[in-house]
What we know:
Distance between the termini: 58 Å
Structural class: alpha/beta
Strand order of the largest sheet: 6-7-8-3-9-10-12-11
Largest sheet: 8 strands, mixed
Strand content: 15-25%
Amino acid sequence: MSTAPFTPAPAGTSPAAPLLEISHLSVRFPTADGLVNAVTDLSYTVKAGQTLGIVGESGSGKSVSSMAVLGLHDRARTHMEGSIKLNGREILNADEHDMRRIRGREIAMIFQDALTALHPFYTIGDQISEAYRFHHNVSKQVARKRAVEMLDRVGIPQPDRRVDDYPHQFSGGMRQRAMIAMALVNDPTLLIADEPTTALDVTVQAQILDLLADLQREFGSAIILITHDLGVIAEVADDVLVMYGGRAVERGPAHEILSHPSMPYTWGLLSSIPDIDGDVDIPLVPIPGTPPSLLNPPSGCPFHPRCTYKDLVADDLCSTVLPDLLPARTPDHLRRCHIQNPDAIYNRLTELREAHQ
C-alpha cells in the first residue's frame, strides 16, 4: 500500500492530457477453486468531456475494471496490478482515506440498480445531502438546498416536495434521475455510469441518455458508460472499448468500430441486434456458445472456442497464441485478432446470414 501523501489534482493539467489513464490493469480474485482472472492487461484513456463506451457480455470485466478505478475492491481479497492515473496521479494503491476524498468528489458512479443502490430508510434528499456534506463543510440547510437544485436539474418535478420522498415513492426512471443527481452533486470530473438504462422503458432510456449528454456539456465531465446495448453506444459514445473474457478485444472511435468492426466478437455483437434502418429480411446471427470461464480461461485468443472464423487462420494460431492488440484500419482503431484481412469476416458473415435464411 502506498504511503505517499495525498495531493490534489494539478491545476495546470493540459486539456489534451488524459483525465483517466489505465495501463496494463489486471484484477484477480482468489477463490477456493483457484484464481479468477476478472480483468487482464487492460489499457485505455479517457479525456475531459469525452464519453467512452465499454461493451461486452456479462462477465467480460466491464464493471470489475470500473470498480477498480473507484477503489471499491476489498484489497485483502483482490490482487491488482498495473496503473490507474487520475489527472496524472497514481491511485491504484492509494489508501482508503485518500480514495474517500476522491470518490464522489472527483470520480462518481451511477450504479446499475437504483432501487438497491438507494437506501430505503432515508429520504432522497437526505442521501443527496449526505453525499454533498461529506465533501463540503456546510450546514444541513445548505446541503438540502443543493439537493433540491440537483433534483430540479435532473428533471424531477416539484423537487422542493419530492426531496422528502423515499426511494419506493419514485418510479424507476425517477430513481435513476435521483442517482444521477447524487453522482453529480459534487461536480465530479469523471462519471462512471454502469448500465444506467437497464430495466427502463425505451422512452425513459432516451430521456436518461439526453440528460447525461446535457449534464456533460454543462459540467464538462468525462463519462465511462458501461453497457451491453450497442444502440446506446452509437447514440452517445465518442470512443468504444469492447471487452471479452476480461480483456480488451477492440478499441477505437465509435464511428469507426460501429461502421467497420474488425474483430469477430464485435461483429457477433452487431449481428445479434436488429437494424431498424436495414433490410427486415436480413436474419440475426447470434454468437454461438457461452462466455469463457474466468477461472480457467482458454488458451490463445479468448474468443476462439466460439469463433466461426478461426478456420481463416492457419497453423491453429487462434487456439495457441494470444493475439496482440494492434492497429486495424487506422492507427487509433485497435483489434485483437489473428485474421489479417477483416473483410474476410464480413464475407463469412454474409454466408452465415444466407445459411440462416
